[in-house]
Amino acid sequence: MELGWGPEEEAFRSELVAFLDREAPSEAVGRDFSAATDEEGIPEWARLWQAKLFDNGWLVPGYPAHLGGRNATPAQSLIYAEELASRGLPRSLHFPGYAIVAPSLLEFGNKRQKEMAPAALRGDTIWCVGMSEPDAGSDLASLSTRAERDGDRFVVNGQKVWTSYAMWAEKCFCYVRTNPDAPKHKGISVLIIDMDSNGIEVRPLRHITGKAEFAEVFFTDVEVPAGNLVGDLNDGWRITMGSLAHERGGLWVQSVAGLEHAIESLIAEARDLGISSDTSVRRLLAREYAEVSSLRSLGYKGFSTFARTSASPEHSFLKLASSEMTKHLAEVGMRLEGGLGTTIDTTHLGRPGRWAATLLASFAATIAGGTSEIQRNIIAERILGLPRE
Ligand SMILES: Cc1cc2nc3c(=O)[nH]c(=O)nc-3n(C[C@H](O)[C@H](O)[C@H](O)COP(=O)(O)OP(=O)(O)OC[C@H]3O[C@@H](n4cnc5c(N)ncnc54)[C@H](O)[C@@H]3O)c2cc1C
Questions:
Q1: Using CA positions, which residue lies closest to atom 7 of ligand 1?
Q2: Which one of the listed residues 82, 83, 213, 247 is annotated catalytic?
Q3: Which of 253, 257, 269, 379 is most open to solvent, judged by the fewest CB atoms within 10 Å of its CB?
Q4: Overall domain count for the chain
Q5: Is this prediction's pTM over 0.70?
Q6: Binning pLDDT at 50, 70 and 90, where does residue 27 land?
């Protein structure tokens, strides 16, 4: 049985590696996939890097050239995700535009809206996604931000919350209720809202880490041209499923690579602290290593299912396991450091400080994109076939 990559995949990898070695900015290498930005906004180097990836067909390799890709196969897209992940290299520090909005515009938008996709991918337009509300998170279909038709425009009133990058975004891909009388999944639509419209107020929210990367967004009588409706009226639920196209099958690689980096750091730290020959420390680290290796194998298995069927139940498990394991590894790091492990130095992220800061940051991944409890529900119902009640 041949388990290696074929010559076409290896040629793809060589070209990519040469590009990354030559072009990746020093600020990006090792940056990892936290969407970390500071309060001054998206750094200039990150915007230039995203544009360079797009211009060279390396932003979303599975897309055609005019969308920042090169028609890569699913296997090549997986190699791409692995190479970036092994360097801790982000494509962008504002994911909603390229990862969520552009695929949705391409799948559901009209001609004018599809034409907005290249700028979203290249990072020329910064987008935010307005889904969650104070009373609608896991149960997104309960959203109540109201859009009422008034001639050639909609008038929007309501509130979004946890809206990543809203303070810097030029546009919002916003889920609104357009028919309050229909069953809740059937009265939702999507509007493109210019963030400089009258009546929008953005209030940054600070994470437990001390950074403010998301915000509350308030809409008061905000006028939106009727032509900014994406897809059909009251058909927004279909769009919530989005379309990550070629991307979805490779996303797990980032999480697994992040865990592998963390274990390597833990091993290095145990050596520095002179405790690497302690049997209990070795056993602890070996167990973590075995666990992440099994996640990688499961990822490959899921990828092969995904490449054939465009769906893979393994992804819910990988999301759950990798986000929870990040939390756990941070706790292991704090334990290795003893008393100093609880101190935080977020300025230099040196030791001590790194693991306590990682622990605080790690909670976000267990909530965003579907909480761990929701993943467990999905696994129970759709994979194990357990009854809903
Ligand atoms: C870093 C970060 C960035 C985000 N960015 C965005 C963004 O850009 N745009 C956006 O719209 N949203 C964003 N979110 C919001 C995110 O999608 C929601 O936080 C998430 O969907 C959970 O919703 P909630 O916070 O309202 O919690 P709730 O849904 O109120 O859940 C509260 C608790 O109850 C549990 N729970 C809820 N329902 C069930 C159930 N059926 N069974 C078992 N347990 C349940 C949950 O697991 C959770 O522990 C972001 C969140 C984070 C952390």
A1: 163
A2: 247
A3: 379
A4: 3
A5: yes
A6: confident
